[in-house]
Design brief:
Layout lengths: L3 H4 L2 H27 L12 H22 L3 H26 L8 H18 L3 H16 L1 H10 L2 H24 L8 H25 L1 H14 L1 H13 L5 H35 L8 H22 L14 H23 L7 H11 L1 H9 L2 H4 L1 H17 L1 H4 L2 H4 L1 H30 L5
Length: 449
């Protein structure tokens, strides 16, 4: 038999053994801490630092010894490893049978902790130190999350849990299936439509959770973060939530105005920043001097968003009570609207008239997806120029602001709050529209550049 020092080297052996022992001891620290919170009658009934450290050490020695015994034979290695593992299992079984009569029988968690500690040692013994350390840390974290998990389980309702699982199934199970077979329909990108539908549901669920935890302030946070991802999905979900609040019409009108300003404002900041970055990428940073309107829109909208966010946080509303975490009706309606707009844009693209189709394509494209439209416009900057590209980008932003009228949930809001959405969206769209006209004039008459 080859001596241990000559097989893997003493330094390597010591490192593996130390990693295994510390990995088991780390899990044991959490067990010791948990034991301090239990009654004295259970003291000593849970393996702690010493026990789990020794179990991991035994696992490490099992792996090292079986490697030495087996040499290069996988069969001998398997037999040796299995024998040493069975030996530990028999010892633990005999110990539990003889020790439990005077104390409470160990639970499933205790048995699983022993198995995990043993496998941490085995992985370290086979030289998989990173894997052993990772499992040790993750196991300790999972054990330490017991109290927060119990609190969460008590706080969350069964309906909310079902809603979370429904979104998870749509994202992780149905989503890949749709992605695999979406190319069977050539006219539109079915997967993109599905993603939009899923995003509306996700924003609705996140907004619901934020409102439930933080009240009206949570709605503001959810609206701002959601608008960064997709303002259309956000306005559909937020207006549905605002429409379900048991408040007077005046309060709802004030809230709807603030949230419409916030959603449209964040979208304009995001889209303008994308236009500026795209032009700088395709034409060079120095060319941004030919598009002062984009910089002006970005700076003014940032100020507007900051002021609106501050007012939204301070908005006086009663505690938010929402009937359901998800609204399938709103998601389906928004997805159908999105599909209709995408189909119309596709048709207009097929009927393109040279020299005349840019403006209607950009306006309709902004109505459907401002991000994709702006990226498409930026890619043409080399042959239409920075000035005209900036004009088209501003038109796309104005159009994307107007689409809040289409995607807002009119049936939940009621006539008066919905009218506020229409007025606010039109007012917000006028700013990039006027700047687009100014940019066109400056470019046509060579005032800039």
């Amino acid at each position: 038999m080859v001596p241990l020092a000559e097989s893997i080297g003493y330094a390597e052996f010591a490192l593996r053994l130390l990693t295994a022992t510390l990995g088991g001891a780390l899990i044991g620290i959490e067990r010791e801490r948990m034991q301090l919170t239990r009654a004295r009658s259970r003291a000593g009934s849970i393996p702690g630092v010493r026990s789990l450290g020794l179990v991991s050490m035994y696992g490490c020695l099992t792996a090292v010894a079986s490697t030495m015994i087996g040499g290069g034979s996988s069969l001998v290695l398997s037999i040796a490893f299995s024998s040493l593992t069975i030996g530990l299992a028999l010892f633990l079984a005999v110990y539990m049978l003889t020790a439990t009569p005077g104390r409470r029988a160990p639970g499933v968690t205790t048995i699983m902790v022993l198995l995990v500690a043993y496998m941490v040692g085995v992985l370290a013994g086979f030289g998989r130190l990173i894997e052993a350390a990772s499992i040790s840390v993750l196991s300790t974290l999972l054990l330490a999350l017991k109290a927060p998990a119990v609190s969460l389980a008590r706080a969350i309702s069964y309906e909310e849990l079902i809603a979370i699982m429904e979104v998870a199934v749509l994202a992780l199970v149905v989503g890949p299936i749709v992605a695999a077979y979406s190319q069977l329909i050539p006219w539109i990108d079915v997967y993109r439509v599905y993603l939009f539908f899923l995003l509306v549901l996700t924003v609705s669920l996140v907004s619901y959770g934020a409102a439930r935890i933080w009240g009206p302030r949570g709605l503001v946070y959810g609206a701002m973060l959601g608008s960064i991802a997709n303002s259309e999905a956000t306005i559909a979900s937020v207006t549905r939530l605002l429409g379900s609040l048991p408040v007077e019409v005046e309060v709802r009108v004030r809230a709807v105005r603030l949230f419409t300003l916030l959603v449209a404002g964040v979208m304009q900041v995001r889209s303008t920043a994308l236009a500026i970055a795209s032009i700088a990428l395709f034409a060079g940073p120095q060319e941004l001097l030919k598009a002062p309107t984009l910089i002006l829109l970005a700076s003014t909208t940032v100020i507007l968003v900051a002021l609106t966010f501050d007012k939204g946080v301070k908005l006086s509303m009663p505690p938010v009570t929402i009937a359901s975490p998800l609204s399938w009706y709103v998601a389906v309606k928004a997805a159908l609207t999105y599909t209709a707009l995408v189909s119309l844009a596709k048709l207009l693209e097929l009927l393109e008239a040279p020299g005349l189709a840019y403006v209607p394509l950009v306006v309709l494209g902004g109505f459907v997806n401002a991000t994709a439209t702006i990226l498409g416009v930026a890619s043409t900057v080399s042959f239409i120029g920075v000035g005209y590209a900036s004009t088209l980008a501003l038109l796309a932003i104005a159009s994307a602001t107007l689409n809040k009228i289409v995607y807002s949930d009119r049936s939940s809001l009621g006539p008066e709050p919905y009218r506020v959405v229409v007025e606010t969206s039109i007012a917000m769209s006028m700013v990039p529209a006027v700047l687009a006209l100014a940019q066109w004039a400056m470019t046509a008459y060579n005032i800039v550049g």
